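FIELD: query
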Amino acid sequence: VPLKSLARPRLSSVTMTEKETNTHDGLIPGLPEDMAKICLALVPRRHFPSMGAVSRRWMSFIGSREFSAVRKEVGKIEGLVYVLAAEAGEKGCRWEVLGERKNSAIPPMPGLTKAGFGVVVLYGKLYVIAGYAAVHGKDSVSDEVYQYDARLNRWGALAKMNVARRDFACAKVDGTIYAAGGFGSSDNSLSSVEAYDPQQNRWTLIDGLRRPRWGCFASGLNSKLYIMGGRSSFTIGNSRFVDVYDPGRSRWEEIKRGCVMVTSHAVVGESFSWKKIPVPLTGSSSTRFCLGARGGKLLLLSQEEEGGYWTMTYDPAAAPGSEWGTSELK
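FIELD: result
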């Protein structure tokens, strides 16, 4: 069925009547529900905030997991990269979304500007977890959690964690967010682990790590949680141990073939072995980098101003020798 662009109402004249908010009414009157969902999924992303103001039904659907599934089915899923960027001078930091043509800022995140926090993306939403902020010259460890809804372009506060923490590991595994280790409010190293259920908006403490661990990172792979790098109690220097949690069995394992020191990480595809990848630097070899992922490719972004630097992309599926390329993202 050829679909033409949907007429968008003037927001200033939209009045939500009792009939319009009735959950028994269809998303679009006169259309079958499945067809109405496809129509909404085909609308460009930039109109989502306006669409969310039409009715509660539309807002609820746009923010749902089903909406993501329908957009994926009709080929409208877009991979976006969000970064916390330092502004010039002493203006602090702001979240930006990187675009092929122009970067744009998103609304300021609630609460204090933090460091040492965790970031997870789940069902099209960005979660910023815990961390610490300098309050009156003293570091204050946080238990706050905020969520940015990229479709509706707005932030919201979520349930607080059971344990305030910073410099910890966090990742998603099959729809659940996990936070492990780090430092607590008394600068004590932590072995506690907690899981967040987005459906219940609740953090639950689960079995902890075998030893306190901090400065590490986590990834979800093959329905398991992997915690690597950083440092841990009872070891000298950076840890090679990998803590693996299986949610299905509620059980921790430990393997010894992890990487030693990690300053940035990203997950692209599925692999169960480590290999070194040479990086073809363009510009100064002293440039500091961070990693990201987009469209099944690895992004390597500069953290410093360098005149000749381009953002690099690594495609693990490319032919040998042609894995690296450049991106307009900067």
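FIELD: remark
The chain has four helices and 21 strands.
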